[in-house]
Amino acid sequence: MRLTKIELTEINLPLIHFFETSFGRTYERRIILLKATDEYGNEGWGECTCGEDPTYSAEWTDPCWLTIEKILAPMVLGRDVESAADVWSLMDSVKGNRMSKAAIETACWDLEAKSLGVPLGNHLGGNRAEIESGVSIGIQDTLEDLLEKIRVEVDAGYRRIKIKIKPGWDGEVVAKVREEFGDILLMGDANSAYSLNDIELFKSMEELDLMMYEQPLAHDDIIDHAKLQAQIKTPICLDESVHSPDDARKAIELKACKIINIKLGRVGGHQQAREIQRIAREAEIPVWCGGMLEAGIGRAHNIAMSTLPGFVLPGDVSASARYWHEDIIDPGVTVSSDGVITVPTKPGIGFDVKQGRIDDLTVRRAEILHDN
Description:
Layout: E1 3-21, E2 24-38, E3 43-48, H1 61-76, H2 87-90, H3 98-116, H4 120-124, E4 130-132, E5 135-137, H5 143-155, E6 161-164, H6 171-181, E7 186-189, H7 199-204, E8 213-214, H8 223-229, E9 236-238, H9 245-253, E10 259-262, H10 264-267, H11 270-282, E11 287-289, H12 296-305, E12 329-330, E13 340-342, E14 352-353, H13 355-361, E15 362-369
Parallel strand pairs: 5-6, 6-7, 7-8, 8-9, 9-10, 10-11
Antiparallel strand pairs: 1-2, 1-15, 2-3, 4-13, 12-14
Helix pairs in contact: 1-3, 5-6, 9-11
């Protein structure tokens, strides 16, 4: 594989309803899309899953754009690699910036799978015809609003409900959800909102039978999570703390978690994600696919990743119509009445990219060419 052109497009895509976590509300997504072209004219699409500001991680829209355009794209253009699995190594000298790297790397996997005429999930080593779908529900204005949203999603068939929690919106809220909805699969995502001073709070919620607490402590911590996990029965799931296969190995060795959330952008793309799921699977640690309010291209890559054998818990990949009035892929991602997504069988990501829709949403473009 040798890339000859990388095209960047930023789109502004309004959410149907705001999405709130412990660090704020999002009403509209600024999304960077990336199209990679090789010497034969084959094309592949990736999506940079960074946020609009550096709250979830240090990466955010404007620096990611510049990092890809000025640093990473020139590093990969015109370079020969055996396969998409080797693209990561071309960018290895750049520290961090995993979401920016993932936008390029995932596009190369789509390109390669299309050129081989195989679905991306199969090309990655996955073997599922369908994946289980869970849903993530942000913090709401009122408890009644939250219960109504959960009711809609339970009735729609989603197999797992994740609710965002933060200090003041936690124990009583979770208890009310459990009272209203019985034994549904339920988890709480804290997005790093707590500290070890809150151990008694987590102990008090043990009786509520949550599947997991996702990233309850600091975004860059493993050691305090190990201390917390040693004192509670409910599994801790690490998200923000795991950026690499080595992070996953250390977290498992320290017993900092019993579950790992894998997000393609956070870990740097498909090859890094495959290695993390391998390490976790050998240690009998379940993994699942987390979400970053992706548009259709990122959502399609998540579906492909979720077909790998280590992904044994319902992920955050849900229907396009939950978030967007119109997605940028055709067809949009749909979830069946029994909570599963059928994995597409067309080559690559398996969906057609709606260029006209992207054009309507575009706020800037850049084209980077190999100069030879």
